[in-house]
Design goal:
352 residues, alpha/beta, 7-stranded mixed β-sheet, 33% helix, globular
Amino acid sequence: MSLPKPSERAFVPFVSVANMMALIHAVGLERTLVELADAIETDFKRWELFDKTPRVAAHSPDGVIELMPTSDGEQYAFKYVNGHPKNTREGLQTVQAFGLLADVDTGYPVLLSEMTVLTALRTAATSAMVAKHLAPKDARVMAMIGNGAQSEFQCMAFKAVCGVDTVRLYDIDAGATAKAVRNLEESGLNVVACASPEEAVEGAQIITTCTADKQYATILTDNMVGAGVHVNAIGGDCPGKTELHRDILLRSDIFVEYPPQTRIEGEIQALPEDHPVTELWQVIRGEAAGRVDARQITLFDSVGFATEDFSALRYVRDALERHGMYDRLDMLADPDDPRDLFGMVQRARPAD
């Protein structure tokens, strides 16, 4: 099934959750993660073309609802996403999302997609893409602290993109770790369930933290992070929520997506406004140094940025050309005469 032609613009390709899962299996999970990482990296290299703004957030005591918009001048994208840690206690997802890609010249949407699954994929792909630039050479062991909905995607992305072959899992909820172990049984990874975060980081060259509680927390204490480690901190993603002891930040070279957003939501909200950080696009384009020393601690203070969602939506739309797997959504008014919207409504009146 080919994408709608300009003459069929009243129909917008819609990728449901079922379609997204079918697309992942048609492409292959690891190939999807590798191709997504490439798409995200490509757009970071075009950084100056994008509109950039911190996401628009509506906070409540229980969570946050956010809009994440951007445009490269030719296409526009936004994502709607929530983050409600309490949801798991009620049998609900912590995160739900959907997104839209549109043509700037006409304003017409060209894709509407679920982004709960896609956000998990793009977050994992971004993490692994960044680690390709910052992690120790030939790193093969990752500690995965926080074994919720994102953890398996992270493990598979680091395997596919960076060559990680061993993951050491820990979660305060042993049931979450057991779930992750089951899900990764046929992954080709050596999976080790650990009884403490200290045990999980033993021998790990990469440490990923991904916890959900909306609070200042110390998931990693200073003594848990030794020289030469890359820390992939993806759980701190809103004001008042962090995972790392402040002293880890002071010993690390910190890399961020978009400083005005990260200083509000990331680990660096615990640091002064003038604390130096390096923007990822500069490293990816070779305009700033990444890892330069074997004993260096590199820290990716990841909060997620709109360009990554733009890349993910663009990747999905291109994949639909090859694989189909979408529904035609009738969501745009298309009168024969663009000036006669009222007449179109009247002509749709049921016959007496």
